[in-house]
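Incident log, structure service

09:12 report received: a user says their structure output differs between two submissions of the same chain.
09:20 pulled the input from the user's history:
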Amino acid sequence: MSSPDIDNAQPIINIDDSSPELPSIENEAQTSASSFAVSTLSSKSFSVQGGTLKRNVYGKNEVWEYFQVYDEKKFKTHAFCILCKCDVNYGKTHSTSNLEKHIMRHHKKEYSIIMSDRANKRLKLHDDSSMIGAQAKLTTYIDSSNVEFQECLLNWMVNSYQPLSAVQNDAFRKMIRCLNKKAPVIGADKIRSLMSMKYFDTMQSITKILKGKNVALTTDAWKSIAKEGYVTCTLHFIEPLTWTLHDFSLGIFKKDGTSTAVDVVRYAEDHMQKFSVSYSQLTCIVTDTEATMIAAGRLFKEKSINEGGQTSWHGCIDHKLELVTKLAFKDGEDSLGTMAACRAIVTFFNSSSQATSKLKEKTKARLGVSLTVIQDFVTPWWSTFSMCE
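09:34 re-ran on a clean worker, output below:
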């Protein structure tokens, strides 16, 4: 069976990017609605009650790029968000934690900029040999056991896919106190903040590793049980000195559009942009051989050529193997319904717990180990092989 030729593949989609402009009446309606939304937010602000706004020139936190403070004493407990034109209460202590939460919940793009900037500073501090002495002095004032505990807790939650609420479970906290009575009590908000910081630190480290390297990209999309679409990308490269293969999963992101070839390319480019990977670094892209992915592969090649790259597209070898084995496993003239009989036997045992129990007893007596049947699936070719075996 020949593999699909991407250059000769027929177009699967026909997308017209041009869309008619809205009538002027609708444009005016949208403008009025936007103005009303802004005025509604502004009406909640003390600025309309005579408050005088100014920049917090003494604030060192990055969030002050998006907030102003009031000059009047009676309004000092609030800061004015210049993004959504509303006030945010940050108390008499003037703690910026509420301001950060506001940015994180309502202005995700700006929050990403803040966290990336902080991650860059930490990475620079770590790499700068001239700061080693200053860093050593700084750590003397930090309880190293608490820092180590937070790091271990964070790694455990990430590697074992624990929910954020796990740190608030009574049994978990009792176990921690049993191991170390001085262990700090960490809530879901704190672990969320630590995890966000860890994410941006890791992203900056990966970006630094990938800089200037030739990489290959694999991408795929699927639907969850809740019928929501997700897409993921993984970058692969070979270390030239050791010839070691490395791969980095760039994350799993929820789709915000359809699943056309144009969308597939856009999702992948969004992943690449987050980690500063250009088409000039991208040697090839691997997808499955579904029709939309073939069309996406053509678009990948065209965009790479336009940007001075030489990216090629390859169909996933596992997917091609599955297409071939489907033909091999079909009943032919010589098999006389063998595959249908195998599946009927498997279905019989799977539908009867008593028959399965007897099968385990017989195999235990004859082979010394209890065995049962294996149900094959449509996609993985090896499941059919295992069923027959």
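09:41 both user submissions now match this output. Likely a transient worker issue. Closing.
09:42 reviewer note: Residues 44-106 form one domain. The beta strands are 53-54, 67-70, 78-81, 86-89, 215-223, 229-239, 244-254, 282-287, 312-315.
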